[in-house]
Amino acid sequence: MAAIDTNVDRSNMQVSDEVAIEIDNMNKWYGQFHVLRDIDLTVYRGERIVICGPSGSGKSTLIRCINALEEHQQGSIVVDGTPLSSDLKNIDKIRSEVGMCFQHFNLFPHLTILENCTLAPIWVRKVPKREAEETAMYFLEKVKIPDQANKYPGQLSGGQQQRVAIARSLCMKPKIMLFDEPTSALDPEMIKEVLDTMIQLAEEGMTMLCVTHEMGFARQVANRVIFMDAGQIVEQNEPEAFFSNPQNDRTKLFLSQILGH
Amino acid sequence: MSDTHAQSVAFVRESEIPPAPPPVAETGALKWVRENLFSGWFNSIMTILGLIVIWYLLSGLIPWIVNGTWEGENVRDCREILQGNGGGCFAVIAQRWEQFLFGFAYPDEFYWRPTLAFLLLFLAVPPALFAMYLPRWTLIATGLYPFVAYWLIWGGSILSPLVVLLGVVGGYFAFNAGERRFGFALGLVAALLATLAIWWIGGTIAGEFSRVGRLEAVASRDLGGFMLNMILGIVCVSLSLPLGIALALGRQSKLPFIKGVCVVFIEFVRGVPLITLLFVANVVLAYFLPPGTNFDLIVRVVIMITMFSAAYIAEVIRGGLAALPKGQYEAGDSLGLDYAQSMRFIILPQALKISIPGIVNVAVGLFKDTTLVSVISMFDMVGMIRGPILSSTDWAGGIYWEPWAFACILFFVVCYGISQYSQWLERQLRTDHR
Amino acid sequence: MTIATDPHGAGQGFRVGQLISDTRYRSYTFQFIALVLLILAFGWLISNMFANLEDLGQDISYEFLSNPAGYDINQQPIPYTSQDTHLRATIIGAMNTLIVAFLACATATVFGVIAGVLRLSNNWIISKLMAVYVEMFRNIPVLIWILIIFTLTANVFPQPRDFRGEEATAAPLFGIIPVTNRGIYVPAPYFTNGIGAQEIEPGTKVTIANSASSANWLIVLAVLAGSFFAARAITGWADKRQEATGERPKTWAMILATWFVPIIITLFALGLHWDIPALRGFNFQGGLLARNSLIALWFALSIYTGAFIAENVRAGILAISKGQTEAAAALGLRPGRVMRLVVLPQALRVIIPPLISQYLNITKNTSLAIAVGYMDLTGTLGGITLNQTGRALEAVLLLMLFYLTFSLAISAIMNVYNNSVALKER
């Protein structure tokens, strides 16, 4: 597990009473296969939630449902007051307010870093180009790679690419950030730089949902850890309690496997 | 490892071994010949066979070129001059080169017009082919070229191509303005309306002033020779590219009806030979057009060849689309881009880049296939040789290598050039940003 | 996208705007618009067609197919006279298409494989020679090649009279195959015994016409099929032995015998004779005549497509990484086994799909026969029949359907093959 700076500044990490995401009795099937079963989850503004679980447990599917990359068949998802329905306007609204980072970064290889960051603000948010570029440079500075702005993604290391992907999402000024295993495709020495960026984001009070196996990150940053297995939320708790005193047997088994060696 | 020899473990090199030259047999031309030509009995036999083939070819080819004559009015003159020394009668090319290039009906006092159009091609094409090295504004030359070339080759008032050009430009601006405000689909509608309006108004005006900038008009049926192959090749490839992209996107679509229509079209066109489509252009298409209208044969042929190559280009681009990782689509979605935006900015630029070699292959194939129009009695290069030249009283009997060699060389230069360009481009794109 | 029990979407009534904005209806809206546009376009075309037909006083009818064709066909796989129907002429055309397509596919494969392998050879001269062959033929239109070879056969090959007499300037190839400017005559095999043999009066000459019929060919085919299965059985037995004992028995002599002994005995028993072409009068008689047009089309298509196949073969072999060969060699396999067990199975998977699409191209390119007067489908149905009857719509539609059927059949085979390969990968 990557070593993380222990001095996390918690002054801005405040959970408000305002609901950011409300998932109610959500179900999803792939054909006959029941991927997500009766998911109930309320995320408050300012929360940092880490979702973990064995592979195939539906954790990625869950967060992909939140910005409609996958459609759910039953139940409801309300993001920032906007119900996720079949109405295209709602989908567009949610997607422009929810940022997402992928395991394989999914940067656009034919565009420069700067163009990657300004594309969506210009065409979705209709921001003037100059302004979009200023915003992009601001966030690129934030993820500490402003000098790479005119390079192409292929010229960057994996860690840098993932930080660009984070900056690209931030340029849309999202209220919520989703992370889908952001560090699992990275070499060990690059994991830290991405996690640092994510911690920085958390320190600024961003609402975050992270699917990750970085338990150190979960311990330090998260205010809630959710354990999923077989498409269900099996256990959720504050990180301290979750790690020191897991209740469910499956959680215990999972934690012993992932922390044991 | 307890029984390792003590001395072999502790070893420190104190002096470098200086590099020595290899044994003599391992260097120089001798080594090359031995390794590449005579490395075994089989290889040696192959080498000798190869040399025999080369000798055989050259022993026919060299006298044919060296002893050949460019003088003479007809095949009998040639025979007299050559006296059976194995030389070629290149007089047929010297005498008839204009017909090879322009066909037999294009007025000879206007040969300068297609020639100029051809030369302008060298100004118009590089901005598109070498886009990464030339400034963007040079693309204006590429954009203007079709209208200039049309005016030069077909003649008539300059106003008509000008009006068409204005319509296209107007449509472009209308699209830009409309798309910003109302989205892609309405932008397209705005572009269409603007273009049609400009054409309608411009057409009326051009009709009034039809004497402005007038070149003597040449009828389509008078075009011929290699010029016809070039025109068909360039026009049909340019037109089939957008159609092919649309078909490929349609075939990848999630909407079953649209997908079905595209699949049926593509598979039908790819399942029949081009000749049958040319038959359609020649004898069938007229049935499906409103009574009384009469399109030029060349327009009908362009329509059918364009459909033909669009189907092949669509398949190439579909391969490019399929090669893109799913994450690219998802990233576009997650940023909130709509279908038209993510296609335009993310998917198509990448898919087209992957497809370039395939598209160039289709283009080369298509250019070669333009010779098929000779079957429906159009006088392209092949049609000219088979018809007016080889059966003329001057050149009938005994002359066949020379005109065909001339045709082969022209086609080879163009096709080989294009495929070399595509390989170069592929290398450029591979090293570009990775 | 459909979200079945969505409390927020379903609660409100239906609005017209949802046709565009709601993902549930959006796709139907677009498809409906596309359908309407398509129907309008087709309706326009069809109404134009009927208007045009009415103006010309024509109708659509396929009756012409049963009328006498009234023209001759110079290559007849099945009997035909000019009194036969257009339908029969069409069928003969289709058969001629298939004949030349089959021949060209076979030889193009041979040319292509040889050239592709030789282009990878270490021998500098050979590989460069093959590169020149490939580039030259790929970059010049096939129609030009067909016409060049046709012109050559008609102008350069000797006339039949050059074979005559003492001062003959030409001699048949190997003494039995005269290559003339009319075409190439090859000896025709026929049988004197077996099924379908006619009673022959003593003293009459045995000819193809009165010798044993084609039923004997079925016997020959059956024997070959038997040999094929026997050879497979031997290989299977060798495999079993190898699995059981670890030793692989030597089988090549047995397999060779299985292929050759039965067929030689059969041919001998059936009384195989060769009808050798001989000069009688102004022309050669006897044997089979492969006309100029067939030769030109066949050879040009083979050598042209061979250049493309060579590139596919080369790419297929290059696609197998050197690592595979090295891994197999490191396991101790001999070079022959490396080729058969490791490289070929992988290379074929890469080579065969483009190879089949080249076969498809050959089949479609046979339609260029019309340029040299070979009476294929395009020459009969799309050529003379169309011109004689004036039934352009019907003839061209039939013509397209024929080619479409050929193509779809070949594509279907390709899909079956691709699926079987894909299954093996798991």
Model description:
The complex is a heterotrimer of chains A (261), B (434) and C (426). Chain A has 261 residues and is α/β, with parallel strands linked by helices. Chain A is 37% helix and 24% strand. In chain A, 49% of the residues are buried. Chain B has a two-stranded antiparallel ribbon. Chain B is an all-alpha fold. Chain B has helices at residues 6-9, 28-36, 41-66, 75-82, 91-102, 112-129, 139-154, 159-182, 184-208, 225-252, 256-271, 274-288, 297-323, 326-334, 339-369, 381-389, 401-432; strands at 156-157, 214-215. Chain B is built from 17 helices and two strands. Chain B starts with 5 loop residues before the first helix and ends with a helix. Chain C is built from 13 helices and seven strands. Chain C has helices spanning 7-11, 18-21, 23-56, 86-119, 124-138, 142-155, 215-245, 252-270, 292-319, 322-330, 335-365, 377-389, 392-425, and strands at residues 179-180, 183-186, 188-191, 272-275, 278-280, 283-285, 288-291. Chains in contact: A-B, A-C, B-C.
Core attributes:
heterotrimer; B: 434 residues; globular; C: mainly alpha; two-stranded antiparallel sheet; 7 strands; 64% helix
Short recap of the structure:
The complex is a heterotrimer of chains A (261), B (434) and C (426). With 261 residues, chain A is α/β, with parallel strands linked by helices.
Give the strand tally of chain C: 7
- Side by side, the strands of the main sheet of chain C go 1-2-7
Low-confidence segments of chain B, ≥5 residues, pLDDT <50?
none
Rg from alpha-carbon coordinates of chain B: 30 Å
Q: Look at the helices and sheets of chain C and give the structural class.
A: mainly alpha
Number of helices of chain B: 17
Tell me how many strands of chain B there are.
Answer: 2
The main pleated sheet of chain B reads as:
2 strands, antiparallel
Helix content of chain C: 55-70%
Query: What about the largest sheet of chain C?
Result: 3 strands, antiparallel
Q: Indicate the radius of gyration of chain C in whole angstroms.
A: 29 Å
Order of helix and strand elements from N to C terminus of chain C:
HHHHHHEEEHHEEEEHHHHH
Shape of chain C: globular
Helix amount of chain B, in percent? over 70%
Strand content of chain C: 5-15%
| SSE run of chain B | HHHHHHHEHHEHHHHHHHH
Averaged pLDDT of chain C, please?
82
Identify the biggest protein-protein contact and residues per side: B-C, 56 and 54 residues
